[in-house]
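Morning F.,

Quick status update on the modeling queue. The single chain you submitted on Monday has been processed. Sequence for confirmation:
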Amino acid sequence: MEHKMRKEDTLSNRHGKHVVKRAARAAVSLGEADFYMVAAVTALVVFGLLMVYSASSYDNIVNGGSSYSDVMKQGLFALIGIVVMLVVSNIDYHLYNRRRTWYMFLGAVVLCLLVVLFPARNNAHRWIYLPFISFQPSEIAKYAVVLYLANLLKNADDKRRSPGMQVIRAFLAAGLVSGIIVTIQSNLSIGAIIGLTAATMVIISGYTLWKTLVPAVLGIGCLAAGMLLVPYRMRRFTSFMDPFADPTGDGHQLVQSLFALASGGLFGRGLSMSRLKAYWIPEAHNDFIFAVVAEELGLIGALVLLALIVVLIYRGIRIALNAKDRLGFLIASGITVVLALQSMINIAVVIGAFPVTGVTLPFISAGGTSLILNLTATGILLNISRHGKTMKSRT
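Structure tokens below.
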């Protein structure tokens, strides 16, 4: 009897130690998310809320509303996005398997098609309007394509899986979504981002050049045709080459943006002191918010924002390189490429280095769909970073 009790005590102690160890490992895992990524994203969200308030306050007051109305909405979206980011950062990214991501991809395609049933905004069908909420399906499509392609391309070194067919399927999937977004939603920029992201993921997944060259050339040709065959896109391209040739027409946005950049100087006019946000720069709180940043905070403020974006992209690359497996590497790479391309294109447009196009600046521009989806994607990156660090600590 005494021996049996002693044995039960031993088992109980072992079980207790096991529970403690599991709890300790769980506690450690909660702290394994990439700190620099969290810090950069938090700083960008706060920076964005500040600039949304500044860029939108004048318009809100003129229209008889509160100067805080836009930033309050953006703050609510930020809160929702952060909660979703924290939840997603605790979901194992391996759950995004091929079947689930196929359903995500299919759902994104259907949503992108459904926009034709809703009213157009600025002569383009890009939004789905529901009671109390509206959203852009193209924002969902970007990351749905990344997750689906990562599952298609993760077995590049497995000869039994017909690697050539995987590349074709990847480009067909990206081409389908890009084509719908370009033709139905008149959004060439998002279509190009999806196409370039797909090409990048195929190249870094390890497939030989000849297997990627033909689909890539076809994709570039389709994007070029999408610009050349649509008159207003050609006008945007020509006005980008010389915006001052038509400063009150097609070159108006870029001309005013350049004035804002030039008037900001080194330290800027001061927060909320922008003059050109007073209906001179269209979409001042959205696509051209970087111009308001440069005018109000000057070169110093613009460089601080650029530094935060660089840190974000750098940590995304680090997470991809330290990923536990090829799936994590491809997902992290795809998300990072999307964020990098959007940031570069938006800033390039504002400074006159790229034709004017409707691309928001991640975490900074006003827009609930974009902010929530970008924070969700950040949550996936944080989960990949946790798995990568756990793997390294065990080896």
